[in-house]
Write a structure and sequence with these properties.
80% helix; mainly alpha; single chain; globular
Length: 139
């Protein structure tokens, strides 16, 4: 059976909701680790991280799949290595935006790597949500 998308808006919505929920948990964790971060709302940090991820992820897929016509199999194989670097900069940028004092401490590296790990973990249910709700069948 070939791939067919029945409701891509619903699929994308599920993807974003799953990512947002995970990033809200991470923002709560970061706030608990940083002194004097009362002004950083969990929602603002999570929405920003989700936006950054959607922007960078969308560009990643657009450049490789559409512009360079890289086969999907190669994109999936290279996914973890290329995205690791991109996510490093995404998390660094997020910490720079909201938690600049944290960057002066070595503590930020641990938080960044936990964030990168979380991003990969969230890919699993988010991708499943897209496949399930958007009606994409691969076979």
């Amino acid at each position: 059976m070939s791939g067919a998308v029945e409701n891509p808006i619903l699929g994308l919505s599920v993807f974003v909701i799953i990512k947002l929920a995970g990033y809200m948990m991470m923002a709560r964790y970061i706030n608990s680790q940083v002194d004097n971060c009362d002004n950083q709302t969990i929602t603002k940090v999570a929405l920003t991280r989700t936006f950054i991820g959607m922007l960078v992820g969308g560009l990643y897929w657009l450049v490789l799949l559409v512009m360079f016509k890289v086969p999907l199999e190669i994109i999936i194989i290279s996914y973890f290595s290329i995205l690791l670097l991109l996510r490093y900069f995404e998390w660094y940028f997020l910490l720079w935006l909201f938690y600049k004092p944290l960057l002066e401490k070595t503590q930020h590296r641990g938080i960044m790597f936990k964030g990168i790990f979380l991003s990969y973990i969230l890919d699993l249910p988010a991708a499943y949500g897209v496949i399930f709700t958007a009606g994409i069948w691969v076979g």
